[in-house]
Prior knowledge:
Layout (H helix, E strand, L loop, with lengths): L27 E5 L2 E4 L3 E7 L6 E5 L5 E3 L4 E10 L5 E8 L5 E2 L16 E2 L12 E6 L10 E5 L5 E5 L6 E2 L11 E5 L6 E7 L6 E7 L9 E4 L3 H15 L16 E6 L2 E4 L2 E4 L2 E7 L4 E6 L2 E3 L6 E2 L21 E3 L5 E3 L2 E9 L12 E9 L4 E5 L4 E5 L2 E2 L5 E17 L15 E9 L14 E9 L1 E8 L1
Antiparallel strand pairs: 1-30, 2-29, 3-28, 4-6, 5-6, 6-7, 7-8, 7-9, 10-11, 11-12, 12-13, 14-15, 15-16, 16-17, 18-21, 19-20, 20-23, 21-22, 23-24, 25-27, 26-27, 27-28, 29-35, 30-34, 31-34, 32-33, 32-34, 32-35
Amino acid sequence: MPASATTSDPQFEIRPGERQLFLDDLGIARLDNLARTMHQPAKRGAVIKPDRPWEFALQTRCAPAWDPQQKVFKIWMITSTTLPGVGGTTYAESEDGLHWTKPALGQCEINGSKQNNFVAVEPDLTWPANAIENVVYDARDPDPSRRYKGLGHCYGREPLVSPDGIHWRRLQVPPIPSSDESNLNIDPRTGAFIATLKTTPGGRRMVTLSTSKDFEHWPAPVLVFSADADDQALAREVIAARLADPTLSQPTHVKPADFAADVYNMPIFRYEGLYVGLPAIFYHTADEENDGFHHVQLICSRDLRDWRRLGERKPFIGPSPVGSGAYDLTQILPPSRPIARGDELWFYYTGIRYRCPPEDARDAGAVCLAVLRRDGFISLDAGEQEGSVLTRPCALPRGELHLNVDAADGRAVVQVCDESGAAIPGFEASAPITGDRLDAVVAWPAAKTEALAGRRVSFRIALRRAALYSYWIE
């Protein structure tokens, strides 16, 4: 149970319009008869597949960027080919995020032709020097030639800028130390650039972090997340369960002495008032052969340093069964961040059929889509017995209270309380909220929250047969 209802935490505040989720306990004073539930996004399958003669597998380490001038989504992919020694970054675009085209960019020669979608800082470079792995669109930059920002090269990240995401130039700054995995995001609240990078001390993969205010000055990366002793204990259980499940793709090599877990890749992005991480946990089944499989987990933090593991370390995105036609059978590389589309969050991630592909393998990897309810990472759930959450007291902004709640078979009722947890007259019980409501306005019979603006209050939200995802003041 979180701290008592009288506890005041100066770090907790309700910003107007910012949604309060329940991934951690910062905003919670008390929980009664409620269970936390992690929700997996619903898979929609591959949206960008290897459909060119030379394409073997497509991967991505960035989320689609919306170009407000061209009115299209843009995405960059790591593309391996069936041609010896040929691979690099390719580009695709879409008006709706579902149907993607691969325009001919005329930059790189493949099989004697430049009619392809490969993009590079310098066309003559080969992998890994020609990689452009992580791209974001920076609407705040006053210089249009720097609106797109990326990290290039596969070993040691080179900061790059572009006016359109297609024509790139290097910044004359030192590279950021990294092995062959990284992610890049922008913190929408602070404007800071967040780079997560891969390091391999002792041969095990871990995640380091570096942040920059101007995209040119990057402090030395610091270790921010790695597999712990609980992950190693869980690894043996996860691998054993995988090997016993005939519906899942099986590793080619299995050596029980090598069973272990490490963190292959991990994007970090701000979501409302906190940071969310999506670590790809790699479960080793044979070290020498580098065999194994991935699960994507869910974690959160308020300061980018201390991380809370969510969902009991179960997969946030796990494997699809064999025979389903899906790509995400073995390797699953996480989405860099979700794209908000109406009342949904769209996650673009990498799915690969193999870790050790057979000689005749083709069509091995694709960019896949999974969809989650907005704010839908974690819910507070009540069954037949009523449960409630009491939020921490804080100064109330002016505006109406909104809930994201699924009460299709039940109801939610809200009470406004003073700092001691006692109900404020006139706000003892709101009108019941029923139905599956992604944006329910809370109302009281004879009072409005505007009268409480600036006062330190808390909310007691009572649920019965309902799941609460978030609340906010609009």
